[in-house]
Amino acid sequence: MENKEKILEVSNLTVSFKTNDGIVHAVRDVSFDLFKGETLAIVGESGSGKSVTSRSLMGLLTPNAIIENGTIMYEETDLLKLKEDQFHKYRGNKLGMVFQDPLSCLNPILKIGKQLTESMLLNEKISKADAKARALKLLAGVGIPDPERCYDRYSFELSGGMRQRVVIAIALSANPEILICDEPTTALDVTIQAQILELINEIKRERGLSVIFITHDMGVVANMADRIAVMYAGKIVEYGTAEEIFYSPAHPYTWALLASIPDLDTREKLESIPGTPPNMLFPPKGDAFAARNKYAIALDFEEQPPLFEITPTHYAATWLLHPKAPKVSPPEIVLERIRKKRELEEAEKREGNR
Hints:
Layout: E1 6-19, E2 22-35, E3 39-43, H1 50-58, E4 65-74, E5 77-78, H2 84-87, E6 95-98, H3 102-105, H4 112-123, H5 128-141, H6 147-151, H7 160-172, E7 178-182, H8 190-207, E8 210-215, H9 218-221, E9 227-232, E10 235-241, H10 242-247, H11 252-259, E11 308-311, E12 314-316, H12 332-353
């Protein structure tokens, strides 16, 4: 990524929430960069802080949120310092967002056309006829087979896959440079899921977009991410290129996520991660994953590990990378999947060279 232009820089982002039970420490000292034209996937279980991170980028945190520290730099502007009326210049126009549940983010009493053109008419000097023409083009561009018909329908009249395509069209309506996708395929069946992923990839290529893709499923990002950040208990515990994460994973949590991916060749029982994520009202003293980690050493329960550099692009926060730590390899199921993935890619290369 050295030759690519940085479009977004998140540094030391720390976000908590006031609740009746106390302060929930949702995002803890998170830093990452996004480069022009790349897809950065942020992966982790529910409650890991992924969605809070994405909503922080969009200025969509709930009123009980406390931004304790950090900066989100878009070009020369720190988005965290903007007031709500100032954020309108960036939300939609610079950063667009595709939400997890299209049914809940589309207004059921407004026609699709009204929801698509509303932002255009509000923020641009554009006629209703031109706004409609652009909306129809957007609907066609996201694979809606009959844009005119869809334009005059309500969201509850569409299938789940069509609704998600409409949400993507709305996110693209103001020509953003960054598209944030927060679990956009969770509620869809496998076939429609694959279509939506391919659509996002296609739109990214056509428009030169930068994409942040939020998901709990490592399998979803295997063929679309350039870089991957793995989150656990509000922290990034490993990040690197997609090749590094899939072929040379270093954190036991990443191993556990990879071991739990189902595939067509899976005959053995899928691995599961024992235990539950920590209560973020009371973050653990040491490594937050220690209690669920069968490879944990004594130091894991006492002190948080730093991000150890593995390569200039690959880092992981685990004491297993300390020079004095015992040497541990990924579990056999992960090693077997790495072997299969390499064999498949080599076979595809041979086939392509014929």
